[in-house]
Design goal:
four-stranded antiparallel sheet, Jelly Rolls
Length: 160
Amino acid sequence: MTTLLSNMPIFGGVSDKLLQYLLDHCPRKKLSKGEYFFHENEAAKTMYVLQYGQVRVEKHWQDQVIVMGTLEKGDCFGEMALIDLYPRSASVVALEESEALEIEPALLATIYEQDQQAFTLIYMNMAREISRRLRKADQLYFESSMTYKTGDHVTRVQLV
């Protein structure tokens, strides 16, 4: 299982010993298809690392569910909960039986006390992951803002 964590960008460069510590001290959350890990606008307390299964990230807008993406084994979600104090920005629902490790701030505080270098590395990796996702969102926003609909077809604006 430490291999799963070590292959995740958020835990890149972290020692196997510390990864095993995480595995030994993180509760697991197991859900059936259709159950939610959390809902948009709930208080954010933990991040999750998907051990198996598949989940969908979704937002609600004008009584509609908008699918933001799908995550699979090894992906993490809810990491912003460990960075800011804002409510959840989206909901995450299991598309099939799924299980994830729950990583709480208290556990990371313990890591800080034991190994500040590893703690810093984890947070740097989290920042990189959030930055990567922000860049992707920026690109999608840019592309959608350069597209407008006319009749039944889509025309892209091309600037010279």
